[in-house]
């Protein structure tokens, strides 16, 4: 039993993104294969792990990803970036441009360029097709099943995939789940060059590798973090990146690289941490930074973290006070007005909050955080038509955000339209990974003649897709 547990623990660290199959005469996956794998992988991940899809969290990480892709150039896939609520020190890139960041990794980051360096590195693995070029097709276990099996292990869900992985080994396939040194160097080179073109200092790559080295030493003798198993040898990577920095003539120019404004990153980080870590630990970290921090930016945004904690504890006046101190340091960051509006509404000062949200939406109609908060407020006030209009706007940008469909289901229920309400509840459960419930609601919708034809057709299409996806797994 001990040997079995050890084997599972060892395998569980390995990830989908780094393996090769023998024999070496492998046939690369096509772009269509990769798209199908990505679709099935996301389906599996939604069932196993919580994804933080709040509009401002999602919009921030996807905007940052797009800033890299604008430099990379046209791609075969529509890249999508996700934050997974998990203490693991891990990031995970998959075929078809799916990239996942675990909250445990985000917690270790100090500034935006560190996140950008990891994000660009993962994009490097995808654009280089480090998986697909090595995947042998036509084996006893399908390429999709094997990839999903290994993905389950990478995500820390060994029960999802152990049988598939063992089966592939029994089939005579030798599997190496680590990136090769060449893979890592290629992704580092790409990341380095992209950061240069963005005028974002690639020295952040070295800082992030130092963090990885520190964590690998700190956890020596215990379970090694998945990211360090799949992206091995931070020490050797540090030497390689250091040599690139030495050759970078731009490092001597104080004006070439931009001084990064870390406000958006730190705000994003604290909003992730509020949902992902122990609140007492978060409070202690924030208090220590405010009391003894030497970096003004870090000190100020620690007060933002305290504002979130106080609001979550319903200490609204204290939360507003902390937020006012942050606003004084960042008078041009209008998103803080949305944060203030949310606290005002929660504290019962609804009209004040509503005015701020209306102003925010007029100021920037593309900020889905503001649009969604106004939609929630209108829904709570019983203004279903306005709430629906706003929710539809968010749905166009974030069509897989689960809470949208719960809210739409509530609107339809208030109208007495039970069938349409069940349709939206089906999609709500679908995007939360509650597949059994989703099927129940969508099946009822698809058979209800009182439901609009478009919704019945969509419900049936989703049910057909679910059958297809489950066959692939």
Summarize the structure.
With 473 residues, the protein is mainly α. The protein has helices at 2-12, 31-48, 55-72, 103-106, 112-127, 143-154, 158-170, 181-197, 203-218, 226-230, 234-246, 263-276, 279-292, 296-312, 316-329, 335-346, 350-363, 368-380, 384-397, 402-414, 418-431, 435-447, 453-472, and strands at 20-21, 51-52, 80-84, 91-94, 98-102, 175-176.
| Helix-strand pattern | HEHEHEEEHHHHEHHHHHHHHHHHHHHHH
Using only CA atoms, what is the Rg? 24 Å
> Helical percent range?
55-70%
Strand content: under 5%
- How many DSSP-defined strands? 6
Supply the number of helical segments.
Answer: 23
Q: Quick one: overall form?
A: globular
Class inferred from helices and paired strands: mainly alpha
Stretches where pLDDT falls below 50 for ≥5 residues?
Answer: 1-27, 136-141, 157-177
Mean pLDDT: 84
Q: Main sheet, how many strands, which sense, barrel?
A: 4 strands, mixed
Physical arrangement of strands within the biggest beta sheet: 2-3-5-4
How far do the termini sit from each other? 28 Å
Topology:
Blueprint: H1 2-12, E1 20-21, H2 31-48, E2 51-52, H3 55-72, E3 80-84, E4 91-94, E5 98-102, H4 103-106, H5 112-127, H6 143-154, H7 158-170, E6 175-176, H8 181-197, H9 203-218, H10 226-230, H11 234-246, H12 263-276, H13 279-292, H14 296-312, H15 316-329, H16 335-346, H17 350-363, H18 368-380, H19 384-397, H20 402-414, H21 418-431, H22 435-447, H23 453-472
Parallel strand pairs: 3-5
Antiparallel strand pairs: 1-6, 2-3, 4-5
Helix pairs in contact: 2-6, 3-5, 3-12, 5-8, 5-9, 6-7, 8-11, 9-11, 12-14, 13-14, 14-15, 15-16, 16-17, 16-18, 17-18, 18-19, 19-20, 20-21, 21-22, 22-23
